[in-house]
Amino acid sequence: MEFTQEEIRQKYDEEASWYDFRVSMLERLTGIARLRKELLRKATGKVLEIAVGTGRNFPYYPRDCAITAIDPSAQMLELARKRAETLHLHPHLQVMDAQALTFPNHSFDTVVSSLSLCTIPEPVRAVREVARVCHPDGKALLLEHGRSSIQWLARFQDRFSDAWYRRHMGCRWNREPLEFVRQAGFEILSARRSFFGIIHAIEAKPSSNPS
Question: What CATH number was assigned to the domain covering residues 5-206?
Fold first, then answer.
């Protein structure tokens, strides 16, 4: 069984107040906070963040970035707004589906996704939208998790993928984010794995010859 985007949105609306509590320990364990800081310092200019959640990336953006952030969950966006206020940031927040962005082509210098491609029902479609709205000279910064590069662990993820999906709000923990980025017409500038080959930090630019 696969959840629809609407079902996933409802789950995140319901769990929004607990989300930061649930993920904080996991992020400390995996080193994601450090990876956010390292990757997002590369953001420049007009920035779009898809599936912003509660705004956990906000502390790591350079202060001169003009941030637009979207999420399908209004409850998650409300928490992102509160986090932005405490940081004295003024992002433009919108309820929107990353699979169908309403922005014109080439609207942003940097597009960011973090820990979202595991949950979006059609991840390649979403990353193609990222490519569309990214300026030809711009970049995409992605911090994602996926199928481990360690075979025994990857097999474990495969075996329990459905159970994890049902228990964790539609998260497919054995997806291949690097392949999604390639399929969407990006050129990989850098890609690094960490935490048993599960966490991906990816910098990419729109390809001049998309497939």
Answer: 3.40.50.150
